[in-house]
Amino acid sequence: MVKQAANVLDLLEYFAREQKTASLADLSAHFGWPRSSTFNLIQTLVERGFLYEPKPRGGYYPTSRWLALAQDVAAAEPLPKAALALIRDLADAIGETVWIAAPSGQQAVLLSVIQSAHAVRYTAEPGRRVPIHATASGQAIMSQMTAAQKTAILRKAVFERFGEGTPMSVEEVEQSISASLRRGWFRSASAYSPDLGGVSVPLAFSGRIFSVTVAGPLFRIERRMDETAAEIHRAITRHCGEDYFRKQVPNLRRLVD
Fold first, then answer.
1. Which residues span the domain enclosing 21?
2. C-beta neighbour count of 98 within 10 angstroms
3. CB–CB of 61/210 below 8 Å?
4. Of residues 202 and 56, which shows the higher confidence score?
5. 81-105 pLDDT, tens per residue?
6. Looking at residues 139-167, what average pLDDT do you find?
């Protein structure tokens, strides 16, 4: 059993290194595995959705299922105490729904949520997923990714109209991210949920990327977006340190000293 697990890991490392398809014969020869054992391993991974044939008889290659699982595991990692204290602070100060989100493939997943006490509010639950390219939460996360990571997401993005503010092209997303970095915060107004407004700022802890978002009914939050963004910056500075913005998100305009 241990050897079988080692073989799966060796196979994954092989594809990460070679970055091309490989046939059963290629893998058997490379690892010195019996053809029957190689066939059984490949078939198991194909049946579980981890390998596929891009072209008939053209060799095997990993699917994005590996990436999705790895991202979900990373997203479920306990949040830093500073991040949890941050959203409690913001919820008390602003009175709207607040959450922290993390990337998960083409989605941003909400990890921790504090609901607003208002009777009319935005209701969200931990585990909810939203399109990463179409939301303030997602774009704040994307703003701290490498160019290659952003390109990979936008290449697969499905540009569906969710509301009046939904970006409908790669160019619109890229322009929104650039403008938001210059402004110092990310804005959503009926982008994914109609009549919902949100203000987001990227967070970075120990090499992981998140975003913190304050959201509520657009009629209530839209006129307070600048004020809300400044309050988020102040809260991040209190909980993450005076040099947080300079060290962790240097491409984002700082709003407060």
1. 2-63
2. 27
3. no
4. 202
5. 888 999 999 999 999 999 999 998 8
6. 92
**Residue closest to 69 by CA, chosen among 118, 20, 105, 115:** 105
Domain count for the chain, please give it.
Answer: 2
C-alpha closest to that of 23 among 56, 63, 49, 67 = 56
pLDDT score, position 75: 67
Name the H helices within 184-249.
Answer: 218-221, 225-240, 244-248
* Residue 71 CB burial class (10 angstroms; 0-12, 13-18, ≥19): middle
CA distance 115 to 103: 21
Averaged confidence pLDDT in the chain:
90
Residue 76 DSSP label: T
How far is the C-alpha of 199 from the C-alpha of 31, rounded, in Å?
51
CATH number, position 14: 1.10.10.10
Q: 54 and 94: one domain?
A: no
**85 & 200 share domain:** yes
Cβ proximity of 113 and 80 under 8 Å: no
* Res. 176: pLDDT tops 90: yes
Cβ atoms of residues 245 and 252 within 8 Å: yes
CA triple 139-142-144, angle to 5 deg: 125
CATH code, domain carrying 244: 3.30.450.40
How far apart are alpha carbons 251 and 69 in whole angstroms? 29
Given the structure tokens 């290629």, which residue do they identify? Answer: 26
Using DSSP's 3-state secondary structure scheme, residue 252 falls into: coil
Structure tokens at 58: 């053209």
Q: What angle do CA 216, 220, 223 make, to 5 degrees?
A: 115
Q: What is the distance between the alpha carbons of residues 176 and 139, in angstroms, rounded to a whole number?
A: 8
Residue 253 lies in a domain: no
